[in-house]
Amino acid sequence: MRALTIGMIALVSGCATAPSPPKPAAKADTISFAAGRCFGACPVYKVTVEPDGSGVLFPEKFTSVPGETRFTVTPQQYRRLRDSLAPFRPATGTKKNIGPGDPSCKRMATDMPGYRIVWDRAPQKPSELDYYGGCHDPQHTRLRAAIAAVPKVLNIEAMLKPAPGTTGKQ
């Protein structure tokens, strides 16, 4: 009887499952970049790039692609995007706004697009930067250059320019 009891305990303990280990934290950020509306024909879109090189463009207006478009980037393109935007990244889990009402936005043009950059890495909270493109103060020169370079870095320029004689997705 004792051997049977020990055998049953061994059998039952073999069926017990250990708790699932937590998902490993991502080693790099998913970067989302959105270009907003302006007074004119500025491309309006959002693009998201994963550390594995997968990307997706969500066009809204004045682009050459009619809908969600998937693309890939090389590891070098991802690193270049990440590194060019890194100096402007707010602290993890925080949001920074540079625009009207911000003391660093004294020289301001109107009717310019706004931009949102989001860095997201599980399990951390995302970091967000909202930048109004009309802030022309000298301390934002490098940020403006980094934003202007995003389509070229990701090689999506052709997707953002409507064909001649068209206005893109309306």
> What summary fits the major beta sheet?
7 strands, mixed
Mean pLDDT: 86
- As a percent range, the share of strand residues is 15-25%
Strand arrangement, major sheet: 4-3-2-1-6-7-5
The tally of beta strands, per DSSP, is 7
Identify low-pLDDT runs.
Answer: 4-18
Number of helices: 4
Shape: globular
**Percent of residues in helical segments?**
25-40%
Write down the secondary-structure element order: HEEEEHEEEHH
As a whole number of angstroms, the C-alpha radius of gyration is 24 Å
Alpha-beta content class: alpha+beta
- Cα end-to-end separation: 80 Å
Question: How would you characterize this protein structure?
Answer:
With 170 residues, this protein is α+β, with helices and mostly antiparallel strands. The chain is 25% helix and 24% strand. The chain is built from 4 helices and 7 strands; from the N terminus they run H-E-E-E-E-H-E-E-E-H-H. It has helices at 2-15, 75-85, 141-154, 157-160; strands spanning 30-35, 44-49, 54-61, 69-72, 95-98, 114-120, 127-132. A 7-stranded mixed beta sheet has the order 4-3-2-1-6-7-5, with no helix packed on it. A hairpin with a 7-residue loop joins strand 3 and strand 4 (69-72). Helix 2 (75-85) runs antiparallel to helix 3 (141-154). The longest helix is centred in the N-terminal third of the chain and has 14 residues, at 2-15.
